[in-house]
Amino acid sequence: MRAGDSMRWILLVLVILLASSIPLCSQPGQPESGQESQPAATLYNVTLDSGYFDKLKGVIEGDTTPKEKEKAILEMAQIAVMLNDSDRAIEYLKEVASTSKDQNVVAAAYAAIDLIRDYYPPEVLGELAVDVEGDLKPGSTVNITATVKAYSDCEGMVGIKRGVPEGMELKSNIRYKFEISAEETKKFTFVVKPEQSDEYALTIALFLEKSRFDYQQVEQEIVLRVDESGGEVVYY
Questions:
Q1: What is the pTM of this model?
Q2: What's the CA gap between 215 and 122, in Å, rounded?
Q3: Domain boundary among 119, 142, 170
Q4: Could you read off the pLDDT of 161-199 as tens digits, one per residue?
Q5: I want to staple 125 with a disulfide (CB 3.0 to 4.6 A). Which of 139, 140, 170, 208 is the partner?
Q6: How confident is the model at residue 49 (pLDDT cuts 50, 70, 90)?
C-alpha cells in the first residue's frame, strides 16, 4: 500500500472515532425524566429521507466552519449507507475531495468515501491468478507467474509483498508497474531460488487504480514446501 493510501486509512480511523459521538440521524432529543426537552447534541436537524442530501450539501458548501463541514460529510456518509444512496453520495464526496482547499475537509471526504465502500464496495477493476512452475527442491529455480486480467482501463502494480523470506534468493524484479486496458491480460514472472528444505510463505499483491478514488487491491498467499522429493505448493 502506498504512503497516501496508508494516510487515508489512518484518517478513516480518526473519522470513525468521531462518528461514535454523533448519532446516525440527528433528531430532536427526547426529554429525560424531570427535564425539559433539549435539542440533540448535533449540528443538524436531518431526517432519514432523500432530503438529507441537499440539507447536508448546504452545510458543506455554505458559510460554515471546517469542523461543521467535516461533521456534515460524515453524517452524509452514514445516512447514504442507511438509505442505499451510495452512488450519489460518493460522486459528490469525490467532488468535495477534489475541490476543497481545507485539508481536514479533504481528509473527511476521503474517509467518508471509504466508510461507504465498506458497505458498498466499488466496481471490480480486475483479477489475479498465481501459478508456480519448477521443481520445489533446494537450489532449484522456481517461477511464480502472476496473471492479471483487467475489466477497466487502469494502471497497476504487482509484486511480492514484504519480499522473499530468509533462505530464499530473489532472481528477478520484486515488483512490476504497468498500464493495462479493459479485457487485457498481462503476465509477470517472479523467479526465486530456495536454498534449503523448508516452507516459504509469500504473498503476491496486486494494486489496480482507475483514479485516485477508484482502486482495488488483491492478494494471493502461497506457501512453497521445498524438499528433496519435489515439494508442493499450498494456496491460501
A1: 0.69
A2: 8
A3: 119
A4: 999 999 999 999 999 999 999 999 999 999 999 999 999
A5: 208
A6: confident
